[in-house]
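User: Is it possible to get a 3D structure for a protein together with its bound compound? The compound here is zinc ion. I've pasted both below.
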Amino acid sequence: MTAPRALDGLPCLECARPLLFDEANGWVVCATAQCVAMGMEMPLWRAARRRDAADPNPAGWPRPLLGGLPVPWITVVAAGRAWFRHLHGDRLRDCQTGWLCQVCGELLPELAWVVVTEEGHVVTPAGMHQRCRVLATSRCPHLQAAGRRLRDVEVTRERIISGGRPWAQVRSPVSWQDWTLLGDKLTLSTVNAHMVIHSPAARGCG
Ligand SMILES: [Zn+2]
Ligand SMILES: [Zn+2]
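Assistant: Yes, that's possible. Here is the predicted structure of the complex:
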């Protein structure tokens, strides 16, 4: 656990001094005593979204590279780097409601891939294209770290329970929801079981 630290490259919009970033929860705050924004916390992705610069992590394929790694569309890019542990909240919500791919941001086909735990919880709850699944599971450092057994499952929207409700009944949620899979046929539909290490950090990395 690290203490919040000044994030060079992401100044406060009010006082222009660096925001403090708490890597543990992904939130930033201005700590300048005289600033009108002092103490106003927000997620890193929201602070980055308020900048006027061109989107450094647009939807599309192939994915942009930062630090030699392909960057998923739902990864927060701020202060010149990709924060693989932190999810872009609005984008993840849009992936869920619009049936968009979390890796490339483009529309998914009828059948899409999700990564699920043994209990049926979807890890980083949004779908992926086949090409994007391969990229995420082969290149994502967090999905290759230590953890428990995860499975890649190909699903339709009808299999998704989003925030406790069937996908088709979910209307304009304010934020993204946890996903689980309907039914108990995981072993039948599991095409490519694979062993990966899952830590909480993996949530930010497809
Ligand atoms: Zn400030
Ligand atoms: Zn994709």
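Residues 89-98 form the longest helix (10 residues). The CA atoms of residues 62 and 104 lie 8 Å apart.
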